[in-house]
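Escalated from tier 1: L7UNP4BN holo job.
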Amino acid sequence: MSFNKLPLEPLYEKIEELKPKFIERLSKAVSIKSVSGDESLRPNVVEMSAFLVNELTNLGFEDIQLKDLGIQPPPVNDPELRLPPIVLGRYGNDSKKKTVLVYGHYDVQPASKEDGWSTEPFELVQVEDILYGRGSTDDKGPVMGWLNVIQAHRELGWELPVNLLVCFEGMEESGSLGLDDLIAKEAKNYFKNVDTVCISDNYWLGTTKPVLTYGLRGCNYYQIAINGPGADLHSGVFGGCVAEPMTDLIKIMSQLVDGKGKILIPGVYDMVAPVTEEENSLYDDIDFSVEELNAASGSNTALHQTKQDILKHRWRFPSLSLHGIEGAFSGGGAKTVIPAKVIGKFSIRTVPDIDSGKLDELVINYINKLFKDLSSPNTIKAELIHDGNYWVSNPFNDSFTAALYATQHVWNMKPDFTREGGSIPITLTFEQQLGTDVLLLPMGRGDDGAHSINEKLNIPNYINGCKTLGSYLHYYGKFESNK
Ligand SMILES: C[C@H](N)C(=O)N[C@@H](Cc1c[nH]cn1)C(=O)O
Ligand SMILES: [Zn+2]
Ligand SMILES: [Zn+2]
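Tier 2 regenerated the structure:
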């Protein structure tokens, strides 16, 4: 099928007309503090699943199910902590139509005003044509986008061109715990007729050109716990007399990665697939610059100066980031304490052909060796908290073509085909368990500040994003079924 514009203008007009309602829907979603990484906020994550069930019910979805995933596995503070449920729903069940499964997540990263936000993070605040709030771009905006598409069709009295299944999870930001098993279980049940999977949960590379994404890095997240004294101690009384856990931890963490971003754990780079000549040439055609990277990071701290080097280091090579130290003094003022127990957190973004299990072995053995060399009387436990695989696909299929046409129709330009430096742990599982293609169709821009302070979604991205998601369903519905 070549690109012939479908008559979608009434849909676009309806989406424009419903803009205030769509902003209100996102505002309600953002106000729920569904932070999966904070155990104390788990009831809010569950509240967010109930919010979605209510929305789906009002929009006429059928067979809505909340799938319980049981108890969260260790390491966790509360051994009874339950995982938030998976929300499933179906819109349409016509055997003559194709079935699209859309996945998104309703949990968010932590946020507090004290981190430096200009507005309250859990309040959607509009400043000109920008909506600020935690989850606005990652991933509540896109999740609301799918609901908005259904609302627009209902109000137009239009049939949806495909059957739509939704799968929304509440643990994506914390490793998608429990979802792999559920997908395996439902592959031949709830998901049995799925033709393709579409995920809107990443971002454009820059700020002006839409993209379609065919690759993700994986993420293995680790912690190093070091235990020493029986309690936090006065540094005047015990300093110099006891081995301090923080000193050991800092020594170890400082030997994981260097200041140029090079991972120092032996063996990691040996597993990385070499960059081929053909692949090298792909980077030349992508629209991006070091200036855009600096603008998005709000600094001039880029480690690489050419577009090709930046993109390879974002998409193609592994990276190791140090995230924090639990138990360390972090407030203002000057507290003279020796922390008794500290837990260092870091993650490695993985790429083809890194073997996740082999990586864990290299990481844990290296840390234990560094600790042994310290001859410290303290004790150490280094472990994996969660992992998620990298994913790279071939973007020459009906789903990507439909997204290409939809993007051209709405944005009047051809999108770039990109990979993503972030991770969506469940992507490969969908591809393998359902045996279908997966498409990543992002809504937000590269400077949206996902995971950062002042996360935002530009209203044109939200509204045109809804049009793009809706158009994608129409273009995809026109392809002949492969079944
Ligand atoms: C790209 C996606 N919106 C996202 O932010 N994913 C997270 C997933 C993750 C993996 N481990 C912890 N969170 C990310 O890339 O950090
Ligand atoms: Zn996300
Ligand atoms: Zn995220």
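The chain has 14 helices and 18 strands.
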